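Task 17 of the worksheet. Students: predict the tertiary structure of the chain below and write it out as structure tokens. Keep your answer in the requested format; marks are given for formatting as well as content.
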Amino acid sequence: MAAIALKGHFASKIIRKSGSLGIVYIKTAQYSSDSTPNLATYKRGTGGRSSFNGIVATVFGCTGFVGRYVCNKLGKIGTQLILPYRSDFYDAQRLKVVGDLGQVLFTPFDLRDDESIAKAVRYSNVVINLVGRDYETKNFKYKDVHIDGARRLARICREMGVKRFIHLSYLNAEENPKPLVLRKPSMFKISKYEGECAVQEEFPTATIFRASDIYGSEDRFLRSFASNWRAFGQYLPLYKNGMETIKQPVFVSDVAQGIVNAIRDEESRCQVYQAVGPKRYLLADMVDWFFNLMRKDKEIWGFRRYDMKYDPIFPIKVA
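Model answer:
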């Protein structure tokens, strides 16, 4: 009579021979309970939702537009997710179902608190930074979020031994952008560029994605043109009537898949990728198409777009 029982990382084989009992312990694998932790040794299964693929990923900005798609794709391939949040927990709670039971963990954090960030990345081998904003508040300016925050995340990840750091930036980020509407250049573009430089200084092997306008469900690209604040009544002001602006929008699911693919590809280290869509459009044509789909065309609704420099309330909107 023989029986096999697994205890930790040892297999014990119990053998009975003519009234005597012998127990033999056979070491089978090196797990993270050994002296040198190694998350990859936990890899089990085919890499589906109900298995573990060896990746423990911390996603900063998980409750944002792109973050929800990234978490969903990571959960589908068996990734253990650590999701830091700074708002009410119920805003992040819906992400519990992106992974299997026990694979999605939450922790509160503050972008200016080193201890909370270190706690969120302590057991991770991949960290994704999706934190960003397109407007300033009294508590968080562009510099606080895009530069100081990104630098702090990259530095702490390097100190904690994180293997991969992926940072989402902006397509038109540059050091000296040309002023278009206002007399001063866009601080959003400048802060995004300086944030890239800060990440590369603190985490030299980081992977950076420069994303174009991202569209999808609940985005800020398509919805902005349909907003009552943007389209006042039947009229929509655009920069030079939209005739000199070219857009190359990219689908949010494609951006999320590109981030997931970069995690798996070792050659993506130290690379900067331009995340753009397959086609280029004139902004004027896109806006006309949007309003036609909403049944707000020129013939029936009376929709008109015009140069924003002729908009009397444009300075108030900017202020």
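Marker's comment: The longest strand covers residues 10-17. Residues 1-18, 23-35 have pLDDT under 50 and may be disordered.
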